Amino acid sequence: MADKIDMLPYEIQPAQTDVVRLAQITDCHIFADPEGCLLGLNTRDSFEAVCDRLKREEWRPDALLATGDLSQDASPQAYKYLADYFKSMQLATFWLAGNHDDSDTMEMYLSNSSVFPAKQILIGDWQILMLDSSVKGKVHGHLSNYQMAFLARALKRYPEKHALICLHHQPVDVGCEWLDQIGLHNADELAALIARHNQVKGVLWGHIHQEFQRSINGVQWIATPSSCVQFEPGSIDFSAGVEAPGYRYLNLYADGRIESVVHRINNVEFEVDYSIKGY
Length: 279
What we know:
Elements: E1 10-12, E2 19-25, E3 37-38, E4 41-42, H1 43-55, E5 63-67, H2 76-89, E6 93-96, H3 103-109, E7 115-116, E8 120-123, E9 126-130, H4 145-157, E10 162-166, H5 177-180, H6 187-195, E11 200-205, E12 212-216, E13 219-223, E14 246-253, E15 258-264
Helix pairs in contact: 2-3
InterPro entries: Calcineurin-like_PHP (IPR004843), CNP_phosphodiesterase-III (IPR050884), GpdQ/CpdA-like (IPR026575), Metallo-depent_PP-like (IPR029052)
GO molecular function, one term: 3',5'-cyclic-AMP phosphodiesterase activity
Protein name: 3',5'-cyclic-AMP phosphodiesterase
C-alpha cells in the first residue's frame, strides 16, 4: 500500500480564512486486546483520555492528523477500533503508517465517513502531505523513490500554498542516541528536496515519544509526544520518560507561520513499568 498515493488531493474548507487549525495524535500503540498494555500502560485508556482532552479544545480543529504507530500489533481489531473511535469524534482524520503498522491493513480498515486515506490535503492557504516512511520488517524509516517523487510533484504543483510535510520517523537527530539510530535513514535526501522549495514551512512527525521543536532555515521541525508511554529525552539507551501522554494542537496561518502547543493529560494517573527496557 505504501506507494498507492496517486489520488486526487482532498480539499477541506477551514472554519476561518486566515488560519488552519490542526490536531496531531501519534504513537497510540493500540492492541487487538482491549486490555493490551505497553510498558504496563493500557494504551486504549490513554488514547481515549487524550482524545477526550482534544474534544474540549476551545477552537475545534479543521482536521486530525494521525502520524503512525497507531497500532502495536498491526491487527484488524486495533484498526477497526481506531476507525470507529475517530469516526465518533466527527473530525476529518488523515493517517500515515509507522514501523509498528501495516499499511495494507490500515488501508482496509481506516476508512469511513470521516477517516480518509488521502495523502495530499488542500486546506486554505496550505497543503498537507502525508508520507509513508515505514520499511516493512524494520524499525528505522526510509522514504522510497516513489514517496519522494510524490512529494516533489505535490510541491511543484502548488507552489503558491504553504506546505506541511508529515511522516512517522524523525528526519533530524533529537539527542537520544538509541532513537537517532532508528530515525529516517535518507533524511539528507528529504532535507535537500525541502531546501529547493521555499513554501515548505514545517515538518511534523512522531516516533520519538517526546516533544521536540527546532527552526532550521525558516522551517519548523516538530515532533509530538505519544498518546501513551513517553521516552526520556537525551537518553543514550532505551528509557521510558515520566511525562504524561499528550497531543499537539497547531495553528497554520495564511502568512506561513506555524504556532503549536502540546497538551498533556496531567489530571489522570497512568501506571508505567519502568523496569521494562524495550517495546
